[in-house]
Amino acid sequence: MHKNDELYICRVCGLEQSEPQWGIDGESPTYNICECCGVEFGYEDSTLIGIRTYRDKWIKSGAKWNCVKYQPISWSLNKQLANVPKKYL
Ligand SMILES: [Zn+2]
Q1: 66 CA distance to ligand 1 middle (Å)
Q2: What are the boundaries of each domain within the chain?
Q3: pLDDT tens-digit profile of 12-68?
Q4: Is the pTM of this model over 0.85?
Q5: What is the 65 CA–ligand 1 centroid distance (Å)?
Q6: Can you tell me the distance from the alpha carbon of 79 to that of 18, in angstroms, rounded to the nearest whole number?
Q7: Buried b (16+ CB within 10 A) or exposed e, 64-89
Q8: In sequence order, what E strands does the chain have?
Q9: Protein residues within 5 Å, CB atom, of ion ligand 1
């Protein structure tokens, strides 16, 4: 049931991750790259300002998937953004 845990959610785009990208303590980032928004966990998403700035830029440039092959056919940006924990909005 960990899938609903916010540790598995990208703070920028809301994509569910296969591992907790900030570690199970939420303080040990993996520096992986989000398949969707392309954020580097532990870098651009390390502050609220950084998260908002990156998200704005990403959406304004068309909200393109970083790894297009993983994009679900019926993908909805708004549905996915609704996964972002409120404290990161
Ligand atoms: Zn993301």
Answers
A1: 9
A2: 1-89
A3: 999 999 999 999 999 999 999 999 999 999 999 999 999 999 999 999 999 999 999
A4: yes
A5: 9
A6: 19
A7: ebbeeeeeeeeeeeeebbeebeeebe
A8: none
A9: 10, 12-13, 15, 34, 36-37
